[in-house]
Write a structure and sequence with these properties.
about 200 residues; 7-stranded antiparallel beta sheet; 6-stranded antiparallel beta barrel; 3 helices; 13 strands; globular
C-alpha cells in the first residue's frame, strides 16, 4: 500500500525483453533494508523486487502486466516515479494507493498557468464514472485532486513542486499514464450497482 507521494525519480538502467521483461531501475533510495519480495510502486504499478543492490533493483513484468500498463513504452533512461511501500505508523500524506492499474489515460493538453501546469487527461469509457470534481485519483502513482470533469476528460492543476519532483516534468501530449481510481469511488459504484441504483 502507498500514499501516492513520490519519494524518488528512478531511472531505467536496463531492460531484458526475453520472456517476462526484466527491468533494472536505479534509485537514490538506500535499499539495504528492503527485502527481496517487497513491493515498490513504479509509476503507479506495484512491482516486486526480485534482485537488488544498495541503489538499484530488478523487477519482472509478466505479459499480463505489459498488456495492461505502459511499461512496454519504457526505454533505457526512462524516468520512473518511485514510492516504497507504507509501514505501520507512516503518515498518509496523499490518499491510499494500491498500485493496481485500472487502465491507461492519455494526456490531451498541457498548459502553463502561472507557475503551475493545467493538464487534461482522457479516461477510458469504463473509468470516467469514477472521476469526480475534488475527488482523488492516482496517475503514474501520483496522488492528485481532480479539478473538473468533462465527460471523459479530467482537468488537473499540477503545482511546481509536483512537476519538479516527479516524472511529470517530462510529460508530453499523447503520453499514456497509469490510472488508479480512488478506492472509495470503486466501492460506492459497486454498492450502487448491486442495489440497482
Amino acid at each position: 500500500m502507498f500514499t501516492g507521494i513520490i519519494t524518488d525519480i528512478g531511472i531505467v538502467r536496463s531492460i531484458d525483453t526475453s520472456g517476462d521483461w526484466k527491468i533494472r531501475i536505479d534509485t537514490k533510495h538506500d535499499l539495504t533494508n528492503v527485502p527481496i519480495g517487497a513491493s515498490i510502486s513504479c509509476s503507479g504499478v506495484c512491482l516486486t523486487v526480485v534482485e537488488k543492490d544498495t541503489h538499484s533493483f530488478l523487477i519482472q513484468a509478466s505479459h499480463e502486466t505489459l498488456n495492461k500498463t505502459a511499461l512496454r513504452d519504457w526505454k533505457t533512461g526512462s524516468k520512473v516515479n518511485l514510492e516504497l511501500s507504507l509501514k505501520m505508523g507512516d503518515e498518509l500524506g496523499g490518499h491510499l494507493v494500491f498500485g493496481h492499474v485500472d487502465g491507461l489515460g492519455q494526456v490531451t493538453s498541457i498548459k502553463q498557468v502561472g507557475n503551475s501546469h493545467h493538464v487534461t487527461v482522457k479516461l477510458p469509457d469504463e473509468l470516467k464514472q469514477f472521476a469526480a470534481p475534488k475527488g482523488s485519483i492516482a496517475l503514474d502513482g501520483i496522488s492528485l485532486t481532480v479539478n473538473a470533469v468533462e465527460n471523459d476528460i479530467i482537468h488537473l492543476m499540477i503545482i511546481p513542486h509536483t512537476w519538479t519532483v516527479t516524472s511529470w516534468g517530462d510529460l508530453a501530449v499523447g503520453q499514456h499514464v497509469h490510472i488508479e481510481i480512488d478506492m472509495l469511488a470503486r466501492y460506492v459504484a459497486r454498492i450502487l450497482a448491486v442495489k440497482g441504483i
